[in-house]
Specification:
The structure holds 2 protein chains of 2 kinds.
Chain A (H helix, E strand, L loop, with lengths): L2 E8 L2 E8 L4 H8 L18 E4 L2 E4 L12 E3 L12 H9 L8 H14 L5 H8 L10 H14 L4
Chain B lengths: L7 E4 L4 H9 L5 E4 L5 H6 L6 E5 L9 E3 L3 E5 L4 H6 L1 H6 L1 H8 L4 H6 L2 H6 L8 H6 L3 E6 L2 E6 L4 E3 L2 E2 L6 E8 L6 E7 L10 E10 L2 E10 L6 E2 L1 H7 L8 H12 L10 H17 L14
Parallel strand pairs in B: 1-3, 2-3
Antiparallel strand pairs in B: 4-5, 5-10, 6-7, 6-10, 8-9, 11-12, 12-13, 13-14
The complex binds flavin-adenine dinucleotide (FAD) and FE2/S2 (inorganic) cluster (2 copies).
Chain lengths: 159, 297
């Protein structure tokens, strides 16, 4: 029973994925669901370029076997913005220049989205810990960090 | 992706019984698969042994942390994130919490499990030293029944465990035995996030009136398995905490650990650092790990 059909929800829509039970969710999302916003960097859990939310939790899709997506709610970078508006984190990345080549950006944005969902007003340490699994070879991190701080300001209710 | 997928199978039963039956199948060859943060890395690099794997991920019986009067029982599928979120672990087992916080990034913490960290049997694994300090016991289960074993002694040699092919770790038990003890956890690596340890240190000491009455000392990455340092604990028991204790500690430690040279570090560096970490723990109470405040993180 190595080949299987998995039913799940991707970015709010019912979806059916087919493949080997141990296939990497990353490959199935990119190749079969055509969601190429999810990137492959290292393929070994170190870089976070392949981050998606699986049942609301940040995971590296290169380390998730397809069978673990069965019945799951998946959010990829394509599902972060609403129909007519970027997510506050995305707006902040644009405003702060948090992207250069852009390969790490989908993962960074999802890591930040997942942080703000859990912790609307993170401390500096919490923000650093939340991004520790995402590598960037271009920006030097300062602008990414600034973007996440900026995004907190945009999402948190005024106090 | 370097692996040839048709050489593998991964089944995902939803009950413990079904999983154990697969593992016990006369034809053998089924191996457990939990969060996949070790196994999928091997798969990608073409190093995962071809064969059949049983996913434990959907098995509710292996999840959850229960608290009783004597201690906690932690399901084998408990992730690092589950550890970090648990108020009793944060209050009573700060070294396990520290180890979880220093493991990988959030995505790894959301998928990596304590059972997987133990059974992967890496000498560089980072939760085992903390578990040894707390006198952990393991519940091990198969179709043949359940047995409970002390975690100290579970690792028999490099990647050799007291675990039969049809058995899995069901839960990890930690007694409330270290309340009031000084505790410390230190991981020494090339950088703070995501680095494999060069030396990992966990310890607890019952120090009253300037005397060390009892201690638990454990290390990772300094021997073929994670090790509890019985010789050192014995040598320190009953001693006064004064500068003279340093030499005793360093000397005894050479009988407990056997570091080697490898890609991450050298034997000499590791022996020296292990001694420094221990002496620092003994002489500087300031380095102790306090209960972790319950905040969201
Ligand atoms: C980016 C990254 C960073 C990491 N950082 C660290 C770190 O800092 N410190 C550290 O120690 N590790 C680290 N790891 C390694 C890994 O995340 C841990 O060892 C993790 O706890 C493994 O758990 P798992 O559930 O993912 O195991 P899996 O990959 O599913 O399995 C690992 C092994 O355990 C066996 N197994 C799993 N569950 C059971 C069970 N209940 N009973 C019997 N056998 C079982 C499997 O058969 C397999 O041999 C890191 C990994 C990655 C990808
Ligand atoms: S590609 Fe998955 S973590 Fe790098
Ligand atoms: S913008 Fe290029 S890797 Fe981050």
């Amino acid at each position: 029973m190595a080949d299987l059909t998995v039913t799940c929800r991707i970015n709010g829509q019912a979806a059916t994925l087919r493949g080997h039970s141990m296939a990497r969710l990353l490959d199935v999302l990119r190749r079969d669901a055509h969601l190429t916003g999810t990137k492959e960097g290292c393929g070994e859990g170190e870089c976070g370029a392949c981050s998606v939310l699986l049942d609301g939790r940040l995971v590296n899709s290169c380390l998730v076997p397809l069978v673990h997506a069965n019945g799951a709610e998946i959010v990829t970078i394509e599902g972060v913005a609403s129909a007519d508006r970027l997510h506050a984190v995305q707006e902040a990345f644009v405003a702060c220049g948090g992207a250069q080549c852009g390969i790490c950006t989908p993962g960074m944005v999802l890591a930040a989205v997942s942080l703000l969902a859990r912790t609307p007003r993170p401390t500096e340490d919490e923000t650093r810990a939340a991004l520790a699994g995402n590598l960037c070879r271009c920006t030097g991190y300062m602008r990414i960090f600034a973007a996440v701080v900026e995004a907190c300001g945009r999402t948190a209710e005024p106090s | 992706m370097r692996a040839f997928l048709p050489a593998y199978d991964l089944e995902a039963p939803e009950t413990l019984d079904a999983a154990l039956r697969l593992l016990s199948g006369g034809d053998g060859g089924w191996k457990p698969f939990a969060g996949g943060t070790d196994l999928m890395v091997l798969l990608e690099s073409g190093k995962l042994a071809p064969g059949r794997y049983v996913s434990l991920w959907d098995i509710e019986e292996l999840r959850g942390i229960t608290v009783s009067e004597d201690g906690v029982a932690i399901g084998a599928l408990t992730t690092y994130s589950d550890v970090l979120a648990h108020p009793v672990l944060r209050a009573d087992f700060p070294l396990v919490v520290r180890a979880a916080a220093e493991t990988g990034g959030v995505a790894t913490q959301n998928r990596g499990t304590l059972g997987g960290n133990i059974a992967n049997a890496s000498p560089a694994a980072d939760t085992p030293p903390a578990l040894l300090v707390y006198d952990a016991e393991l519940d091990i289960v198969s179709v043949r029944g359940t047995r409970r074993v002390p975690y100290d002694g579970f690792h028999k040699g490099y990647k050799v465990m007291d675990l039969a092919p049809d058995e899995i770790i069901r839960r990890i038990r930690l007694p409330f035995a270290r309340r009031g003890w000084r505790q410390a956890y230190r991981k020494v690596g090339t950088r703070r996030a995501q680095a494999i340890s060069k030396v990992c240190f966990a310890a607890a000491a019952d120090v009253r009136d300037g005397t060390l009455h009892d201690a638990r000392i454990a290390f990772g990455s300094v021997a073929p398995t994670v090790v509890r340092c019985h010789v050192t604990e014995h040598a320190l028991r009953g001693r006064r905490i004064d500068p003279g204790i340093a030499a005793v500690a360093r000397q005894a430690l050479t009988a407990d650990i056997a570091p080697i040279d490898d890609v991450r570090s050298t034997a000499r560096y590791r022996m020296r650092v292990a001694g420094n970490l221990l002496v620092d723990f003994l002489l500087n109470d300031d380095n102790s790990q306090r209960p972790t405040p319950n905040s969201q993180s």
